[in-house]
Amino acid sequence: MRFAYYPGCSMGEGTAKEYDQSVKAVCQMLGVELEEIPDWSCCGASSGHSTNYKLGHALAARNLALAEKMDMDIAVGCPACFQRLKGTRHEVKQNASLKEELPKLIGMPYEAKHDVRHILDIIYSDIDIEQIRNRVKKPLSGLKLACYYGCFIVRPPKVVQFDDLENPQSMDILMDALGAEVLDWSAKVDCCGGSLSLSKRDIVTRLVTGIADAARGVGAEAIVTACPLCMANLDTRQKPDSGKALPTFYFSELMGLAFGVSDGEAKGWFQKHLVSPVALLDSHSLL
Amino acid sequence: MQLTCEQFQETGDPTFSSRVKEVSEAGLERCYQCLTCTLSCPVALDMDYPPHQIMRMVQLGLKEQVLSSSSIWLCTTCETCVARCPQEVDILRVMDTLREMALQEKVKGKETVIPIFHDTFLESIRTFGRQHELSMLLLLKLRSRDMFSDLDLGIKMLLKGKLGILPPKRKGIKEMKAIFEKTKEGSP
Questions:
Q1: What is the ipTM of this complex?
Q2: pTM for the whole thing?
Q3: CB distance A62–B175 less than 8 Å?
């Protein structure tokens, strides 16, 4: 199984390096080959499509066209990048004039031949869950988790075509296969505030504190995410009344830990978190 | 929001309504004010007009109020409204179209920091090809005249190696500049 890998700015260069590292470690163990798209550029994120329709699609299309040269489906870890790339591919298929115009804007042909997939989808859909169960060397027994999907893995459903819109299950099933205690809760697909983090801190604080309170309310000890932006907001902006913020994990970090990566490698990921999960993992003898 | 007939006659602009419908192709005419969008919106309470009112105001052609509203900028683009709308109105496309129009027409709206954020974010991509978070953050702070909030957080993130110091250098920068140049006229 080989994919053209699009890391995106957070995972490739910025705040989510531990997500990139843990995704690569887990994919390697599962036989998923990720070949980085050479000279990829930013997908434009929400600022692109929010302010200029053509620019938004052109910024995404440049990367789609580079991946098309590699003749492989594209794997993306960041849900925002995933939804931008997949959204542009969807739009090209619907909109003939955009399809004609984009190659002129990006200076490359683009035929929308290959699919765009989120890494969570690839691991959940393409790999037998028994294979994942069999790989577990260190079961996450007793660790109480709330799986948080956020916005762009499941929305808009017509474009992303993955999992249930209101009550997704893929991450829950994966975490259950690792031996964790997975909890039902109500904030799975709520918005963390996204890019308002830098411009409207109060709003993002209210939203992520609400999400963490909902997780704590069902007895969760930690939140699991598949999104660098959700992680950044949960990790930096939670302000619970108790003063004790809930730690957040990338799903790939917990997969790597359960699959038995070295403690040193796992600690390298976890030391990058602002809300440290180390004491929690220690209390379950997982580190 | 309540408008008298006189105010509506003074401010209503039917060409605005038809232009938004034409550009966004979002099915805006189907909106029947059920409020599902507003009840789903994480930031409806922070907006001056919640999403269902923005939809109605566009239908009525209230251009000035819509384009200067804080709502169009506070929308987080989370698409919960789009996913739940029983009339399948692409509310996000309407919001995107309104934001783009507000920028093109240089509307001085109630919300100033979020447009600065978007501009600074895109400036960083135009310059480096990829987002360079540290320089983007510093420029944003300078432009929004807010140097000291989050200083402690920024230092913690630097120490954890979460913010790269040196900006990325990419071969594709010329292509990126060309994309910005060719799309600068915008869409609507």
A1: 0.95
A2: 0.96
A3: yes
